[in-house]
């Protein structure tokens, strides 16, 4: 019936809103019809439409404007306070509208006031439940998507492990032949072998030693520098609290590679990349800084990081902070992870 999960998700939201507001419309109509016994049908319709409008307005404000404050900033009491202010304003506006449209309901003011408070706070509760339900569905969908992507990553990793022994034996043979005749080429082959060994064997694990991740970044930088004859400005600093701490494999390399790409280091003499990594007993602190050379770099900011951010959500959900700062002439990427 539905061509995509997104269409099903939208359908669930529409159904929820339709049935809820149909429900409160019917209940409110029955209350004013049976308890207050108005004979004027137009007055009944107006009062139901009025209540429905303000309930939906309250619902919409919570869904559209207060969702981030509630679920991202976690400011529950601030959201509650704002809702109380909104409800108070609505309660002031309701008698004004009744008098404006010349509907005489003054004889039942206290009863109406009680009904209004009841329906508005009931709508507030329903909107918060709705937001929690939608947030649950979104998180569930995101987790399934991330698991699927991780499974794909693991399958791709298994494919990359095809005949690794043949590959390393071949590299060792080339290294032996180049060791005397071309020491520089031999060193390049040695660094490449270490780098690929890490990719093939260590990256299949859930966690790796942090010092191995550091060694991989160092090998990657060495291999990158060997591609250019000119001196290039890459500065990598690290300080580890404990080399036996562990981290998800290849988590940091994408940020390093992205810094190289955006800086166009090796192409422009003024290009630079700074990489800093440190750990304490609880957290890892990682930073990259690189120059930016063109408008195209600016438009591409962050695109290369998305897969890594998805992995962070899967492996370190609610345990990391990530920030990209767009400076005048440089980009800075900050990543903190609870190890």
Q: Tell me the structural class.
A: alpha+beta
Number of strands: 7
Query: Treating each run of at least 4 consecutive H or I residues as one helix, how many helices?
Result: 11
Summarize the helix and strand pattern as letters: HHHHHHHEHEEHEEHHEE
Indicate the mean pLDDT: 78
How much strand? 5-15%
Question: Major sheet: order of its strands?
Answer: 2-4-5-7-6
How can the largest sheet be summarized? 5 strands, mixed
Amino- and carboxy-terminal Cα gap:
44 Å
- The Rg value, from CA coordinates, equals 31 Å
* Oligomerization: single chain
The low-confidence parts are 295-303
Helix content: 55-70%
Shape: elongated
Polypeptide structure, described:
This protein has helices at 5-36, 41-65, 67-71, 76-100, 109-160, 164-181, 183-200, 210-226, 253-263, 295-299, 306-315, and strands at residues 208-209, 233-239, 246-247, 272-279, 283-291, 320-326, 330-338. Mean pLDDT is 78; it is low at 295-303. Helix 2 packs parallel to helix 5 (109-160). The strands form 2 sheets. Strands 2-4-5-7-6 form a 5-stranded mixed β-sheet, covered by helices on one side. The chain has a two-stranded antiparallel sheet with strand order 1-3. Helices cover 64% and strands 13% of the residues. By secondary structure, the protein is of the alpha+beta class. The two termini are 44 Å apart. It is elongated.
